[in-house]
Design goal:
Distance between the termini: 23 Å
Helix content: 40-55%
Number of strands: 4
Strand order of the largest sheet: 2-1-3-4
Number of helices: 8
Shape: globular
Pfam family, one: DUF4174
Keywords: Signal
Structural class: alpha+beta
CATH topology: Glutaredoxin
CATH superfamily: Glutaredoxin
Largest sheet: 4 strands, mixed
CATH architecture: 3-Layer(aba) Sandwich
Radius of gyration: 15 Å
Protein name: DUF4174 domain-containing protein
InterPro entries: DUF4174 (IPR025232)
Organism: Hymenobacter gelipurpurascens
Number of domains: 1
């Protein structure tokens, strides 16, 4: 009998490390796929968006590497990490990211979106997982989650 949870964590880690994340699938999907996906995460997951002009971004690579070192902490906080590569986005997705989330396509931006759908943190340079988790751990909803028995 196989346990699906470790396999799921391993797969998520592989996807994060290799860069084979949702952004390319979103670019190939129907127009406006990102605008549909993101609201579905509300009240389910915290979302960390790693926005960059393309996959060659040194800031993107650095942030990806740092987050890949903390898969258990990401899972514990219900965080889903997605890359948003502007050179792979459909026009509707590009417009959504720029207009609704205020991200500029020419530079790296990290967005932390809370379970309520609001932008909780915006950074233009890579940050440490400790700093990211510190922001999340001060949120009232996260403090409630941490008090619940596991």
């Amino acid at each position: 009998m196989y346990c699906l949870i470790p396999l799921t964590r391993w797969m998520a880690l592989l996807l994060l490390i290799s860069g084979l994340v949702v952004s390319s699938a979103l670019a190939q999907a129907s127009e406006g796929a990102f605008a549909t996906w993101l609201p579905k995460q509300r009240w389910q997951k915290r979302v960390v968006l790693l926005c960059a002009p393309n996959s060659a971004s040194s800031e993107l690579k650095a942030q990806r590497h740092q987050l890949a070192a903390a898969p258990a902490e990401l899972q514990e906080r219900d965080i889903v990490v997605r890359e948003v590569l502007f050179d792979q986005l459909s026009n509707p997705d590009r417009q959504y990211i720029m207009q609704k989330l205020g991200v500029k396509p020419a530079a790296f931006t990290l967005l932390l979106i809370g379970k309520d759908g609001g932008v909780k943190r915006r950074e233009t340079a890579p940050i440490s997982p400790t700093s990211l988790f510190g922001t999340i751990d001060t949120m009232p909803m996260r403090r409630q989650e941490a008090r619940r028995p596991k």
